[in-house]
Design goal:
The protein is of the alpha/beta class. It has 18 helices and twelve strands. The strands form two sheets. It has a seven-stranded mixed beta sheet, sandwiched between helices. 52% of the residues are buried. Bound molecules: glutamic acid (GLU). Glutamic acid is lined by residues 104-106, 178, 180, 208, 360, 388-389, 392.
């Protein structure tokens, strides 16, 4: 994303030069990592106004230090499948930045996982976690293991092997993993069981997203999706708009997507489409969430089963075309780069009013530019999907104090956090000369908090 207003102020020039120098070195030092380059570029370009105002960040080498993970762990994950054959996957944990708290971020099991993906996610997590106002640093992990089609026993054996190595690098005050794509309550349970066995102690705060019967927080499953809708609701409210009566398209059908749909419906919207990695469903009567939850969460089946139960609905193969469905609000909640320039142009042509990113980096840089150029309200991922990790931090707080809050208490705190993130982002955008640009506002608000802590802690 380009900074539109060029000024000849020497401090701005120095800041732009500094950003370009750091971007160049990121490209050189991390070849073949396109997603990591993309995440760093999108973020650093928007920090120019902050570096102009506070040039001491340049003197302290803050950007050079931010783009270099504090620690990267890559490891072998051997396991045996149900046929007794030995399989080997690759595991990662990137401990990116610990300026404001222990590393915190999810674990993703998906065949696309590699160093670039884990680094882009870990980098984004630094800013997202800072925005929540909770004391958590940035980290991320995962494996190229494909959970699709694996038996429960295979999932358990793989996950235990993954944790056997990971356990050496994490702890409630060191690094606290959680779920992400392919990792939910079942996998977190197996990981926790293995960690407990290896450690010989019940350290509840080592992982979040646990079952509520053994230290998990109520409302954690709902948090990311609810949080996305709470954030978009604030963004709409600022323009005198709301979800009431709006047509919404939500990609994905994991917990982010399902609970974004649930909250949007609660606020009076009609959600007409959602997807999985094979295709998407369109139901002009509004998606029946009871059926969808049963298919995706309970039975872990493919989304096309939906049309067996709702013969009026349609199923289409390939997910990309989901963005050609006319809607007022689009919530990309599936995965990175799922919404490109072509998709953005279609959404704009169909009159979309607002975008809320529930997934991590779902829009390409070109797509974001198109939304900005057409004055589509745009809620960037680092803010809009921060609700999940925010409630993870609340889970850590409950674990430390050995208490558990009710669903309503956690949901109310989540709602307040999302309102606060929106306010912080709006204020930072205004203060740094780009009113209404939430990409700039979000990145700067998240950055300042971390950068100031880094300055105070020295090199
Ligand atoms: N994986 C989630 C995210 O992208 C949640 C991380 C967490 O709860 O630690 O923010």
């Amino acid at each position: 994303m380009a900074i539109k207003e060029k000024t000849i102020h020497p401090q701005t020039q120095a800041a732009e030069k500094y950003v370009q120098k750091v971007l160049e070195s990121v490209r050189e030092r991390n070849p073949h990592e396109p997603e990591f380059h993309q995440a760093v570029k999108e973020t650093l370009l928007s920090l120019v106004p902050a570096l102009t105002k506070k040039p001491e960040y340049i003197d302290h080498g803050i950007l050079e230090r931010l783009v270099e993970p504090e620690r990267v762990i890559s490891f072998q994950v051997p396991w045996t499948d149900d046929q007794g054959r030995v399989q080997v996957n690759r595991g990662f944990r990137v401990q990116f930045n610990s300026a404001i708290g222990p590393y915190k971020g999810g674990i993703r099991f998906h065949p696309s996982v590699n160093a670039s993906i884990v680094k882009f996610l870990g980098f984004e997590q630094i800013f997202k976690n800072s925005l929540t106002g909770q004391p958590i640093g940035g980290g991320k992990g995962g494996s190229d293991f494909d959970p699709k089609g694996k038996s429960d026993q295979e999932i358990m054996r793989f996950t235990q092997s993954f944790m056997t190595e990971l356990s050496k690098h994490i702890g409630p005050d060191v690094d606290v993993p959680a779920g992400d794509i392919g990792v939910s309550a079942r996998e977190i349970g197996y990981m926790f069981g293995q960690y407990k066995k290896l450690r010989g102690a019940y350290e509840a705060g080592v992982l979040t997203g646990k079952g509520p019967n053994y230290g998990g927080s109520l409302a954690r499953t709902e948090a990311t999706g609810y949080g996305t809708v709470y954030f978009v609701e604030e963004m709409l409210k600022a323009k005198g708009l709301s979800f009431e009566g709006k047509t919404v398209v939500v990609s994905g059908s994991g917990n982010v997507s399902i609970f974004a749909m649930e909250k949007a419906q609660e606020l009076g919207a009609k959600v007409v489409a959602c997807s999985d990695s094979s295709g998407y469903i369109y139901d002009e009567n509004g998606i029946d969430l009871g059926t969808l939850k049963q298919i995706k969460m309970e039975n872990k089946e493919r989304i096309n089963i939906y049309i067996d139960k709702h013969p009026d609905a349609y199923y289409f193969e390939e997910c990309k075309n989901i963005w050609s469905i006319p809607c007022d609000i689009a919530l990309p909640c599936a995965t990175q780069n799922e919404l490109d320039g072509d998709s953005a142009r279609k959404l704009v042509a169909n009159g979309v009013a607002a975008i809320g990113e529930g997934a991590n980096m779902p829009s390409t840089i070109e797509a974001i530019d198109i939304f900005h150029n057409h004055e589509v309200l745009f809620a960037p991922a680092k803010a809009a999907n921060a609700g999940g990790v925010a409630v993870s931090a609340l889970e850590m707080a409950q674990n430390s104090s050995r208490i558990s809050w009710t669903f309503e208490e956690v949901d109310a705190q989540l709602h307040e956090i999302m309102i606060d993130i929106h306010e912080k982002s709006v204020n930072a955008a205004k203060e740094y000369g780009h009113p209404g640009n939430l990409v700039i506002g979000t990145n700067i608000a998240g950055f300042i908090n971390v950068a100031d802590a880094m300055v105070m802690q020295g090199v």
